[in-house]
Request: fold
Amino acid sequence: IVIVGTSYNGSDTTNVNLVLRGGFNAFNATTGEFLWRTRVSAANEGTSGGSWSTAAADTNLGIIYVGTANATTPPAGKNTDALMAIDYNTGFIVWSKQYTKNDVWSSLYPCGIDYDLGASPNAFTNKKGAVVGAASKEGIYRVFRRDNGHPIWETPLIPAGSS
Reply:
């Protein structure tokens, strides 16, 4: 399977009615056949919510972990600014943990927070077992169980308010 993320950067300042939404598309690696598409935001939510980074994968669980971008038009969806776990065989969202709610930022909405997850998630094992972690632009690194998204720990990487 080849999975390709899509994003929209919100740079078109001439049209506030754009319906471009970020997501993930899967293709058969041998034939190129389209297999599935998973959108970060639903049709009734704002634009963007794509991914800027490389996914981490757990081949035992069949899950990829991806960080998502903020919305570029309101309303921000529940999977924006989130770490998402997606079944890579079906595109089903296994779990999603939103770091920052209501984050809308673009050239059309320059007063937003812009706290998306731009760094690639890290899959590793510790005393709690198989975990995945990622940081957001807010400067907080959060770690979750890979199978169910249960929070394990979080730590600030920078002083509060200095992102």
